[in-house]
Specification:
mainly alpha; 266 residues; 73% helix
Length: 266
């Protein structure tokens, strides 16, 4: 019997929860390593804020963007960072190359969903909590229309989903192109760093790249611009439509590439 969409979504959410709870318990077995990883994660989250603080203390910063507006971008990129722990290109590459994907094909869930959940995504929890604190603090020091809040939240979530599917696609594609995908993780880290600043500093070419090819701007710059009134509310429909279209493209491309997967058993 075919499951309804709501039922499939609930089952997927339950799978994500169980998988992350398991990874959290495994990580807690080695307490010292767990503490050091938390410290390393915390430093990684603090550095961008320290950088923009210094930048605005020694200069006038970026024209048209205040300190708290830029802080909002940093918080949004931190929120988008959670997807890298799920759609980790190097891990996806290893799962496919070493034959672990065979076991995913026997599960009733979508193979792509299995790829995204079977990971140590517990660190996404810390990035998620931290990003919400940063976003809330920035918003508390900004003036914006409450009418822009709903479009802001919708485009943030849509942008994060789009970026997750893009990241997963690059990991699957790397299986067909590279013997390993550590360079892909480095690339994702750099893309996230670019997302912490307004698109105008990258020029027209950069705006096209970070909107369509490496769409981190859909999760950071465009939602922030909507909330702050830098672009009109009518842009919401164009942005959300683009997020839906790109998500469909990346999902279809990933499914197409997975059809070429060669089982470890031959």
């Amino acid at each position: 019997m075919r499951q309804s969409l709501a039922s499939r979504l609930m089952n997927g959410a339950r799978l994500v929860y169980i998988s992350q709870l398991y990874s959290f318990k495994i990580a807690m077995v080695y307490r010292a390593q767990f503490a050091l990883t938390i410290l390393d994660t915390f430093v990684g989250m603090i550095l961008p804020i320290a950088f923009i603080t210094i930048m605005y203390n020694v200069s006038q910063g970026i024209s048209g963007w205040s300190f708290y507006q830029l802080l909002l971008l940093v918080g949004l990129v931190d929120f988008a960072t959670i997807v890298v722990y799920y759609a980790n290109p190097a891990r996806i590459n290893n799962v496919l190359r070493l034959g672990y994907f065979d076991t995913y094909l026997t599960k009733p869930q979508s193979p792509i969903l299995m790829l995204l959940t079977k990971t140590e995504g517990m660190w996404s929890f810390f990035f998620g909590m931290w990003s919400i604190i940063v976003i809330a603090f920035a918003c508390a020091n900004l003036s914006f229309s409450m009418m822009n809040l709903a479009p802001f939240i919708i485009t943030v979530l849509g942008g994060v989903v789009t970026f997750m599917l893009f990241t997963a696609f690059t990991g699957i594609a790397s299986y067909r192109i590279f013997s390993q995908a550590n360079s892909q993780n480095w690339l994702m880290s750099n893309i996230l760093s670019f997302g912490q600043y307004p698109l105008k500093i990258y020029g027209n070419i950069g705006a096209i790249i970070f909107t369509f090819a490496a769409p981190i701007a859909l999760a950071s710059f465009y939602p922030a611009s909507l909330l702050l009134g830098k672009i009109g509310i009518l842009y919401f429909f164009a942005i959300f439509g683009l997020e839906v279209a790109l998500s469909a493209v990346f999902l279809k491309a990933s499914e197409t590439l997975l059809k070429g997967y060669t089982s470890a058993s031959g």
